[in-house]
Design goal:
With about 200 residues, this protein is an alpha+beta fold. The chain has two domains: about 20-65 and about 110-175, no CATH class; about 80-110 and about 175-204, no CATH class. Helices cover about 55% and strands about 25% of the residues. It has helices spanning about 1-20, 55-70, 80-105, 125-145, 175-185, 190-204; strands at about 25-30, 35-45, 45-50, 110-120, 150-155, 160-175. The protein is extended, with a radius of gyration of 24 Å. It starts with a helix and ends with a helix.
């Protein structure tokens, strides 16, 4: 009997302990000459995942298949659309409060260990290059205030038109914080009301 009790306890405790092991995400990306190149690795418990990259052609084919299915599906009346939109507008303040709460909880689950941005920017008009350079520096200072590990190096190019941006980052996701955010959402009055609103919109 004691052995069965210990096994049940282990089955409950061990999955909870796994939530305290963070998911590590390594990202390297570069945008140059209108092309995007990136390397993405996700590591958890020593297991590395390399998500498959889908091309734009694959996405277009998927969108075409979905559009064909939607044409064959039920047609939504214009009157129903108007009623749903007006209902959503009335409930928007409540949903925005909930969204702010959810984003704050999820932000606590993200730990950005490092983030670096290198960019060479140049536009046809040197004045636009100068304006963009000043704006990016101001935005970078704001981001650095909230993410101390953020580093950036922007080089303006006044005699050529070029956009070359490289980003490298290491991010840790705390799974137990995501679980807390979900529980906080479900247990709060605003969360239950938002679920009721979404359910009513879907069923109507």
């Amino acid at each position: 009997m004691d052995l069965i009790l210990y096994l049940l306890l282990a089955l409950i405790v061990l999955p909870l302990l796994l939530l305290f092991f963070p998911v590590k995400i390594y990202l390297k990306a570069r945008v140059a000459d209108g092309a995007l190149e990136h390397i993405l690795r996700i590591n958890w418990l020593g297991i590395t995942f390399n998500p498959k990259r889908f091309s734009r052609l694959d996405r277009k084919e998927k969108e075409n298949r979905q559009s064909k299915r939607s044409k064959k599906g039920k047609k939504v009346r214009e009157k129903d659309k108007i009623s749903k939109t007006s209902f959503l507008v009335r409930q928007a303040p409540q949903l925005l409060i909930l969204l702010r709460q959810l984003l704050c909880d999820l932000w606590k689950a993200v730990d950005i260990s490092s983030m670096k941005v290198n960019a060479d920017l140049g536009f046809a008009d040197p004045a636009n290059t100068g304006v963009a350079y000043g704006f990016i520096h101001a935005a970078g200072s704001v981001v650095h205030r909230h993410i101390p590990t953020f580093r950036y190096d922007i080089s303006p190019v006044f005699d050529d038109k070029i956009i070359d941006i490289s980003v490298s980052s290491t991010i840790r996701i705390k799974l137990y914080r995501i679980v807390y955010a979900a529980l906080h959402l479900l247990c709060s009055g605003n969360g239950r009301r938002a679920i009721w609103i979404l359910w009513k919109m879907r069923s109507s």
